[in-house]
Amino acid sequence: MDAAILTIGDELLIGQVIDTNSAWLAMRLNELGFTVKARFSVGDNMSEIRDAIYYATELAPVVITTGGLGPTSDDRTREVLCDMFECEMQENEEVLNGIKEMFSKRGWPLTDVNRRQAMVPDRAKVLFNKLGTAPGLYFEDGSTHIFVMPGVPFEMKEMFSTAVIPHLKRICGHQVYVHETRVFSGIGESWLSDRIQPWEEKLPDNISLAYLPAPGIIRLRLSHLADNEQQGRALLTQLFDDVMPLVDEYFVTSIDEPIAATLLREMTDSGKTFCTAESCTGGYIAHLITSIPGSSAAFKGSVVAYSNEIKEKLLNVSPTTLQRYGAVSEQTVSEMATHARQILNTDFAMAVSGIAGPDGGTPDKPVGLVWLAVASDKSVVTQELKLGGPRDVIIARSAVSAMFMCLKEKRKEHS
């Protein structure tokens, strides 16, 4: 079944607020078996909201809107829908009591503006808001279903999960979209496509394949509209098992997650510890790792050695090495990783040094040249990268590549 998503608010059109609601809703709808035909935004103008809702209903029988339900004068969605469905606003006692209770707990006075939140169109079913004051609405008109939710993301997500999904399951039936994802690194998108082309050509017609690239990472996603989630997932898993011999050396994880999460989980599960010594990435690898709850179980710390002085004083990189080979060299990152592992007393250490640009390059060492090293008690391995793109992309790809190197070295020790 088809669905359309409409997000409402001037703040979305001028870029003051990023629309994350439609992306989140699209994923949830897809999981429930809906095909999202369109995602679009309009401002707070009443005629534009009305036109957008009419347009959305022409595209799909299920329309989801967010935004425009607040208590202030710029929130017009309720008013528009009341006019469209030729109904009247009435005060909903249950909604009002919920607002009163929330304000009482927080010691806030209930104003007339807040009380107006309890006014709802009499033809709508109320979707109660457990985390805010703006109730959601559900309009059903023949085969058309319109769900209206607040724009505040955490309120919207709670309402969708608890109040909207039961209706959608009734509307859509039992079919579900099943997705399986495999994450790869160390290979470009076109090269990966060439490798798996024989497998891709044999995929069943009812299976869709998507390439989802990001700096240093490619996610392959298989999707299938199945009558049974368990059987659908088993089919996709088997298809991925068939292709793995072609791409096993580039495999990161079968979980759709950042590579930092995969590295942290495998280190933690094996009781190993690791650290980083970062120059051109400026602590970005450490940031990615420590943004994950529980990272202290395996990650012990980082040394951001941006200058040669810090490389010498904190990481004991030899002045002779720096003078002879330079900061961006195999020899320097080898010493950075080796000494970081000793100083921070870890099982593994990653080191990165490079020229992220936009300036600083030379004919011998151009922008995008990056050296990586991973040290363990058994060896030090290195890798040279020649990357393109803007500074932030070079940093991101360097970080991912370093973590993938570390992950592979860790796996070698347990193979």
Stretches where pLDDT is under 50 for at least 5 consecutive residues are none
| Strand residue percentage | 25-35%
Q: In total, how many domains does the architecture comprise? A: 3
Number of helices: 15
> Reading side by side through the largest sheet, how are the strands ordered?
2-1-3-8-7-6
| Shape by Cα distribution | elongated
Distance between the termini: 46 Å
Largest sheet: 6 strands, mixed
Identify the CATH homologous superfamily of the largest domain.
Answer: MoaB/Mog-like domain
CATH topology of the largest domain: Molybdenum Cofactor Biosythetic Enzyme, Chain A
- Given helix and strand content, the structural type is alpha/beta
Overall average pLDDT: 94
Give the C-level CATH assignment of the largest domain.
Alpha Beta
Name the CATH architecture of the largest domain: 3-Layer(aba) Sandwich
| Strand segment tally | 17
Brief summary:
By secondary structure, the chain is α/β, with parallel strands linked by helices. The chain has 15 helices and 17 strands.
Topology:
Layout: E1 2-8, H1 10-13, H2 21-31, E2 35-42, H3 46-59, E3 62-66, H4 77-84, E4 89-91, H5 93-106, H6 112-115, E5 119-121, E6 125-127, E7 136-141, E8 144-149, H7 153-172, E9 176-185, H8 189-201, E10 207-214, E11 217-226, H9 229-247, E12 251-253, H10 259-269, E13 274-278, H11 284-290, E14 299-304, H12 308-315, H13 319-325, H14 330-344, E15 348-354, E16 369-375, E17 380-386, H15 391-413
Parallel strand pairs: 1-2, 1-3, 3-8, 13-14, 13-15
Antiparallel strand pairs: 4-5, 6-7, 7-8, 9-11, 9-12, 10-11, 15-16, 16-17
